[in-house]
Structure formats: structure tokens, C-alpha cells
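Session log. Operator J.P. requested a structure for one protein chain; no other inputs attached. Running the standard single-chain path with C-alpha cell output.
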Amino acid sequence: MSKRLNMFIVLILTLSVLLAACQPAAVEEQSVADAGESAEETSTDTAAEEPAAESEAAEKPTVTFGDTQWQSLWINNAVAMFVVEHGYGYPVEEVTVTTPVMQQAMAENEIQVMMEIWWANIEEWWNTEREAGTIVELGPIFESSAQGYYVPRYVIEGDEERDIEPMAPDLVSVFDLPKYQELFADAEDPDMGVIISCITGWNCAEVNRIKFYAYGLGDTFNIVEPGSSGALDAAIAGPYKKGEAVVSYYWEPTWLLGVYDMVMLEEPAYSEECWSQITAISETGVIDESLIGNVPAEAGCAFENYAIPKAVTAEFAAQEPDLTAFLDTMFIGTENLNKISAYMTQNEVEADEAAVWYLENYEDQWQQWVPEDVAAKVAAAVAAAVADAE
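Structure written below.
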């Protein structure tokens, strides 16, 4: 190659480098902009290809459930949240609060759903908020909120399988207890019978003590208040497992009444007149042995037994009619909640696992709450959860 040609090539290359270096910045910016538009188009195309359900789910608000800390509520929350999340595609959240905080939070729509409203305990708030239109009452979650004095069924009827003879065949009501004072003897005071009452500090402890005196039991029985729910459960479960006699306050739905066959003793029927007397005595703050012989019989009657409804905020009901319709229809029932509670306790699982067990085994019930397409999604999610647990 000649020197002249070499010089010509070098000149051409030099000019090329100089021209590239002198390109306006706008060209580079335009290139970056073009690349951005290209990326945006790609992103848009990808988003357009995503399932519509996922896009909708991303836009749905979180549904907030209140947790005021008892077992049946944990179960009801877990079942409802599973259906809302997997059947309807909403994110869900459970917020643990005290009852007063729950009341304020619902009034302000910070908690949107309460799966159990024991309204007799918060009647003033319940009536005020419903009348103000901030809270909407939904259908019941279970039909019986029974509470009272229970004995094991074998105490009355015996149990052939356990070789237990009837101990108190005529025991029907609280007024029959004095006949069986020795059967329910207090280990620490053998000349007296003993009734296990409600947990210290709970309102039912005061109510039980007032009724105890109204029924005239103070001459033949002592009444003992356990310090915790665990102590109350143990005071019943221990004698039950041994086939011994015990009489104790309890309530349902609960795991214990799902496991043990107990019979509630009869009491005079609830009435507003009776309950007003119980309330008046309670408000004096004097709930001790000085009441023996001083509480009128008219202050003794059963706790009110009523169906436990659900509630949502009015704002939630207006914005989420489909979810509100589902929650309104949802009904598990007292007997089934006893069984689910028993499964949860005996297998030492959390409420969300107990909810999957319920949804797996009670399809005929829960599939009535939702449309077919929602039921299909829930069933698929249940199957996946069961498979993951194996």
C-alpha cells in the first residue's frame, strides 16, 4: 500500500472521530428519550398482557378486621379473611385492640369489620352508633351465646363406656345443688360444696356472685373465682378426665364445650326486671359475703341468650356491597364453632390453620355464602394450603 493511500486513510479516520465528538447533546438526549419511550411501550405492553384480576387486586383497598382477643373471634376472622383474600382478591389485615379502642376505631372507619358483636356488653355504644348511621348490623355468625353453670353429663346420666354410674340423677337446676353438697365438696372446706365461677375481674364474676346469693346457695356452697382462663379450664378438665363431679360456670362457643359433654343447669328465665336488680347491686360495689341472705330471689336469673351478629362500618357497606353481602350471609353456628375450637386447641394450631380445616371439611356450608366463581377460587386456595401443609 502506498504512503499516500495510508495518509488518506488516516485523514478519513481522524475526521470521523472529530465529527463524532462534535455531535450535539440533543442527539444523545433524543436517543435516551427514544430508549425511554421504547421501555415505556414495552412496560405498557407487558401490563396489558397481565391478567385483569391481578390489576384489579392491586387497586383494591385493604379490609381491616378487629380482634378483641378470644378464640371464636379468631376463628371467625380467619375464615372470613381467607374468603375475602382468596375469593374476592382483597388484601386483609387483622388489628388487635381492646373493646374501647375497637369502638372508637369503627366509628372512624379505621376498623371496618367486627365478626362478633356481643352487644349486651356494649349496648349503649351499639345503639348510639347504629342510630347515628356509622355502623351497620349484619346477620348472626352463631345463634347461641349461652353462659351459665355446667356439670358433666355423666354426673347426671352416667357413662357406660367409662364405667361411671349416675351421681346426681335428679340434678336439673341450680336449686337442686344443695341436695348434692357432698358430691361437689370443696377440697379446702369439706363441709361445703364448691362452685367454680367466672374469672376474677370479668363482669360475669360479679354477676355470678349476686346470682349465687339470690339462689340461696351461700349456706351450702362456696364460690371460687379462678385467676385466668387457663385455671378455669383446668378446674373443669381435671375432674372431667378423672370422671369426678364438678359444677362450674362456662360459656359457648368454646373449645371446652366442643371436647367435653357438659349440661347447663336450669335457672329462672332472663328478664329485664331481674337484670336491672343485678345491675343495681353490682353498682354498689359490695359483692361479698355480707350479701348472704340480703339479695332478693328476684335478682337471680339466667344470662340473656342471644344470637351474636356481625357489623361493618356504613362507609365500608357503601363502598363494598359484594363483600358486605358475603359477610351478612356468613353463618358458622355455635355447634360448628365448638368443633372448630376443639380442633384448634387439641391440635395446637393457629386460627388460620383451623380456618383451612373448616373450609376443607364444611364445603356444603360455606359455599352457600358466595357466588360459584368465588367459591371455586376459595376451594382452589384451600386445596393449595392443604397441599403446602402436607
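Operator note: The longest strand covers residues 135-142.
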